[in-house]
# Entry
Amino acid sequence: MTTITVLGSGSRGNAVAIESDGQVLLVDAGFSSKELRARAEAVGLDLTGLCGIALTHEHQDHARGAVRLANQCGVPVLASPGTWSALGRPGKRSHGRGQIGFAPLRSGGRTECGPFTLAGCAILHDALEPLALTVTARDGTAVGVAFDFGRPTQGLRFLFRTLHAVVVESNYDEVLLRTSGYPVSVQHRIAGSGGHLSNRATAQFLGDLFQPALGTVVLAHLSQQCNSPEVARQTVEPILRSRGFRGTVHVAEQDHPLPTLRVGNGAQARLQTEFEWSDGRSDRPELLFRPLG
Ligand SMILES: [Zn+2]
Ligand SMILES: [Zn+2]
# Structure
């Protein structure tokens, strides 16, 4: 069984725990190590099984507690070489218990960590070498995580084409951004290609990604000024449903973890059934089905 637990998400910190075979991989660690431990404990997530901490990029809301927690738990940090260098290559220094291990993640490459295989894809963001990631467990369950990107690229659509669960940013509502009182230059930066994804763009992106195995969607990294959980859900969910999505949509919170979500169970069987059923239907995104075989 594979589960995901969003320990928190927003501009003040992001962390997603993926658990399978008794081992846990954190994707981003944007809270202090103490806060990460407290949030894990609050939802019954056992971090003694932590096997690594993967980072999407170096911004503090994604990387704040990574080095300290990795050091405390004796696990490697997995990141792009650019992200690692922006963090000051902490593996070259001693941090109390020893040196932090570093495993490079590369756009287009694959990296193993415990029972997980990670794949990365470059995204557009004002960081040194930011990545979106997929994490595939031994049971075949695939989870995608994408934060902080202004627009989806073809590479990202390709990487995310066969997911069972996705945690994706749904940062702002376009009207709320325009009426937020932010200076126009800030609005342009948020809405630009290196900024953040609007609810509408997320809805479109997820609608395009939909295939029957996708059973869990978590909307994340919501702006507190220019969005609300209700607005994000109301923008995204109808579009997903209109494409045939029958899974669950969750909205991650900044201040509290979401309950642990089981992902992938039964999805393979459903995928096969619907794959056959949908064969030849012109209203289905056939391109998305081809790589599954
Ligand atoms: Zn960022
Ligand atoms: Zn961020």
